[in-house]
Amino acid sequence: MDSVGVAADAGPGSAWRSKCPWGAPNTTSISCSFADVMSEQLAKELQLEEENAAFPEVVAVAEGPFITGENTDTSSDLMLAQMLQMEFDREYDAQLRREEKKINGDSKVSISFENYRKVHPYDSDSSEDEVDWQDTRHDPYRADKPTTTPRRGFIGKGKDITTKHDEVVCGRKNTARMENFAPEFQVGDGIGMDLKLSNQVFNALKQHAYSEERRSARLHEKKEHSTAEKAVDPKTRLLMYKMINSGMLETITGCISTGKESVVFHAYGGESATEDKVIPPECAIKVFKTTLNEFKNRDKYIKDDYRFKDRFGRLNPRKIIRMWAEKEMHNLTRMQNAGIPCPKVVLLKKHVLVMSFIGQDQVPAPKLKDVTLSSEDMKKAYHLILNMMQQLYKECNLVHADLSEYNMLWHDGKVWLIDVSQSVEPTHPHGLEFLFRDCRNVSQFFQKGGVAEALNERELFNAVSGLNITADNEVDFQEEIEALEKRNEDHVQNHGKRLSRFSSSGDPPIYDE
Fold first, then answer.
1. For a pLDDT cut of 70, what percent of the chain falls above it?
2. CATH 3.30.200.20 residue spans of the chain
3. Catalytic choice (402, 419, 472, 490)
4. Is 428 exposed, middle or buried (0-12, 13-18, 19+ CB in 10 A)?
5. Phi and psi for 101 in degrees, rounded to 5?
6. CB 418 within 8 A of CB 409
7. Which of 23, 295, 334, 506 has the fewest CB atoms within 10 Å, counting from its CB?
8. What is the per-residue DSSP string for 251-269?
9. Range of lowest pLDDT (23-37, 172-186, 274-288, 389-403)
10. Is 231-364 CATH 3.30.200.20?
11. Residue 447 pLDDT > 70, yes or no?
């Protein structure tokens, strides 16, 4: 075989091998140096060539103000900061979309947070890997649509029957209905939990939510018109500021006593605008609380007092509290004129009463229940109180009505009476009952204190009132007291006059003309 035939035979075979997929590929070797092989730049270029050859359909990202992390150099701190800001903006936009979807719901009128977004619309789409939980499950903040129950009242057959009173169904419905509560009522976060509230629990929560809503509505009114413990409302504070600005008071140091009906502050006196009125160096400011809770059960002390009876029915409840302060001022004035040791009235402004301070250097005089007296001082205090009760009844024509060791102070070796806002006259429909109660409190206190000559409550009552009620026991004694009060009240209703003095004898009483 000649060389020409061999060449002719080799031509078609080589062409067939080049087209055959199982044939060895024709590779062309590219000569390069060792430094080029170890170069990282060459490795990156070869990798990009292979990726472009394997995935020719992927297009390059358009250049723009936003940066992606695929083909960027992360060695620059500025580049890293821009990429982090980009990721933060995307998360912020996703949160805005969730809030927008939550607020709009199924409403026909919707709002948009488009102006608050950070990323442009063409680059704001999140990746497929970042799937929002709102897209995969129902909104936990939105109540489920109630399933329609057939008219027959149950669903299913046989053992699988479910009525509308099913515990699980009612529990889930009650949980969804909690969204109807007021926004201020916190119902908690039950995402991912299958909560079931029983009817009893739901009704209790519903009632509590309504109560909280009404209480919050009254909060503003309470702040404006009430005086809390150791604090004053804005109107009272303004009255006290005016007293300081006028020069009547120099300064108010603080609270010294609190009670159910009032708060007492200590103050240093200033200069009086008139020469006839002398302001003591230390004053006590008694602020009557303007809340009506403590005065609802105290109206019996003032509505039957003839001095205020005509005005009681025409005033609103808040002005009655001012009348309570006025009543204490008048009672203190009577006691002061009779020489009974008591605070001296300086000024009355609405429900604020300024009096002289019983004590020294901001320290109030102790109450009888808090002070420890010797036997001689205890005996002296008893006789002083007995004389004061007689003076109060006969000269001032008053009954303290709340006399006890809590309302008697020990200062300068003598007893001082305070808190006479509830004091009434003996001709009050319950005046003698109040006097008997005072006698019981005084008698029990001094008998426990070791005063041997202390009278019992019945003997003390007769000694103070001048009546001669003879009864073997306390029950009969109180019945005779009630009979005297009833006779006086009947006389007032029939003749319009009030008995000036009671008499247990058969002599005709003396009437006030």
1. 67
2. 231-364
3. 402
4. buried
5. -70, -35
6. yes
7. 506
8. EEEEEEEE-SSEEEEEEEE
9. 23-37
10. yes
11. yes
Secondary element (H or E) of residue 348: strand 345-349
Is the separation of the CB atoms in 36 and 43 below 8 Å?
A: no
Q: Please list, in sequence order, all residues whose beta carbon lies within 8 angstroms of the beta carbon of residue 423, skipping any fewer than 6 positions away.
A: 327, 331, 392, 398, 399, 400, 401, 402
| Percent above pLDDT 90 for the chain | 29
Q: How far is CA 348 from CA 187, 240, 243, 330, in A?
A: 50, 11, 11, 10
Identify whether 73 is a catalytic site residue: no
Give per-residue pLDDT as tens, 455-502.
Answer: 999 999 999 998 888 888 888 898 898 888 888 777 666 665 555 445
Residues of the chain with CATH 1.10.510.10: 366-500
CA distance 155 to 149: 7
pLDDT tens profile 164-216: 777 888 888 888 888 777 766 777 766 567 788 888 888 888 888 888 877 77
Phi, psi of 2 (to 5 degrees): -85, 175
Burial 213-236 (b: 16+ CB within 10 A, else e): eeeeeeeeeeeeebbeeeebbeeb
- Can you state the angle between helices 375-394 and 457-465, rounded to 10 degrees? 50
Single out the residue of 343, 361, 435 nearest to residue 398, CA to CA: 435
Pick 281 or 102 by higher pLDDT: 281
Residue 406 confidence (pLDDT) above 50: yes
- Is 0.85 topped by the overall pTM? no
The whole-angstrom separation of Cα 426 and Cα 252 is: 38
> What is residue 211's predicted lDDT score, i.e. its pLDDT?
84
| Closest alpha carbon to 283 in 359, 224, 181 | 359
Which range has highest mean pLDDT (56-65, 109-118, 426-435)? 426-435
Number of helical H runs and strand E runs in the chain:
15, 11
Helix-helix angle 457-465:474-495, to 10 degrees = 30
| Residue 228 or residue 368, greater confidence | 368
Q: How would residue 130 be classed by pLDDT, with cut points 50, 70 and 90?
A: very low
Distances in Å between the Cα of 461 and the Cα atoms of 341, 392, 393, 457, 467 are 21, 13, 11, 6, 8
Amino acid letter at 97? R
The CATH number of the domain covering residues in 366-500: 1.10.510.10
**Dihedral sign computed on CA atoms, order 494, 500, 501, 503:** negative
